[in-house]
Specification:
With about 325 residues, the chain is an alpha+beta fold. It folds into 2 domains: about 230 residues, Jelly Rolls (Sandwich), CATH 2.60.120; about 80 residues, Arc Repressor Mutant, subunit A (Orthogonal Bundle), CATH 1.10.10.60. The protein is about 50% helix and about 20% strand. The protein contains 13 helices and 12 strands. Strands 1-3-4-11-6-9-12 form a 7-stranded antiparallel beta sheet, with helices on both faces. The chain has a 5-stranded antiparallel beta sheet with strand order 2-5-10-7-8. Helix 4 runs antiparallel to helix 6, helix 6 packs across helix 7 and helix 8 crosses helix 9. It is globular and about 70 Å long. The protein starts with a strand and ends with a helix.
Length: about 325
């Protein structure tokens, strides 16, 4: 499955442009970037905006931040794009937003979510001069098959928590580390669909299948990403990993073991790989490399390295 990563920011525009020119140029680029909606700039602050998206087949993850007052999808975009996907959106701002969709007007509190349909216009405004939101576009037919009465949830505020918030947390995590999407695109799209279906009320066999595949897989991905970011910290433990992931230590150990290796095995492998890479680059002191990779005991580092690679750190060091 093709994975496409996109980003668009006002920092990419020529610095000599005036504020109005910057907005007009950005709006033109935004139409090519994602013809999902239109923005109205705030009048009292300089215009800035940053957008990131990951497209995995028909699934899209998006994150938007900027100084604009409204977000709207006009009938023109509906007709031009012929897009009938569902859009799950979360308000990451500090103020409640008023949303109009399908003839309904409702309030979207900070942290709350809403389910929109891209084949109909919508409008959102909250009276502030900045907006922050995350959205996920999901395929229509598959989601409908998994969730009964799905249409009754469109155009209403959905309370935060549970699988829906986990889906958005997962999306935000991936948008901050987009390289992960290229390594597991199909799995990511499936996990997001599973989480959305669970949160929106999937029942019966579809719910059981989604729970088996979605929740544990997403939590495992989050745990592995945290481990890859922090393995170099001296004293990093399974307990600290669990705390960072918001899970119990027992649950984290179960996830890692089911995925093929224990916490200690994964931690040491990450540290050994980094040490080997640093040693191959040049004449840094071995003790400095050991410390950077999370080892406080040089003798223990030497034993681990020799056990893993069959030679001493000194022999592995590059010219």
């Amino acid at each position: 499955m093709t994975v496409i990563r996109k980003s668009l920011s006002t920092t990419m525009l020529p610095p000599e442009l005036g504020d109005r020119q910057r907005f007009l140029r950005f709006a033109e680029l935004f139409e090519h970037f994602s013809n999902t909606g239109e923005l109205d700039p705030a009048a009292d602050v300089p215009f800035r905006a940053e957008m990131n998206s990951i497209h995995i087949g028909t699934t899209m993850l998006g994150r938007c931040d900027g100084t604009f007052t409204t977000v709207r999808r006009e009938l023109r975009q509906v007709r031009e794009t012929n897009d009938d996907r569902y859009c799950l959106v979360r308000n990451r701002g500090a103020r409640a937003s008023t949303v109009i969709h399908r003839g309904r007007e409702f309030t979207l509190q900070p942290g709350s979510l809403a389910l929109l349909k891209l084949d109909e216009p919508f409008f959102a405004a909250d009276g502030t001069n900045s907006k922050h939101f995350t959205n996920v576009h999901l395929p229509t037919a598959t989601l409908r098959a998994m969730v009964p009465d799905l249409e009754n949830l469109v155009g209403r505020e959905l309370e935060p928590g549970g699988a829906l918030s986990l889906a958005m947390d997962y999306s935000d995590l991936l948008l901050r580390h987009p390289q992960a999407a290229g390594e597991a695109g199909v799995a990511i799209a499936n996990h997001l669909l599973d989480l959305a279906a669970i949160g929106l009320g999937a029942r019966g066999e579809p719910a059981l299948a989604a729970q088996r595949g979605g929740l544990r897989a997403v939590r495992l991905k989050a745990v592995l990403m945290i481990l890859e970011q922090r393995f170099g910290e001296p004293g990093f433990s399974a307990q600290k990993l669990a705390a960072a992931a918001g899970l119990s230590e027992r649950y984290v150990n179960e996830l890692l073991f089911e995925a093929g290796a224990s916490f200690t095995t994964r931690l040491n492998e990450l540290r050994m790989r980094k040490a080997a890479d640093l040693l191959a680059r040049g004449k840094r002191r071995i003790s400095d490399i050991a410390f950077e990779c999370g080892f406080n005991d040089l003798s223990y580092f030497n034993r681990c390295f020799r056990r893993r690679f069959g030679l001493t750190p000194t022999a592995a060091r590059g010219p």
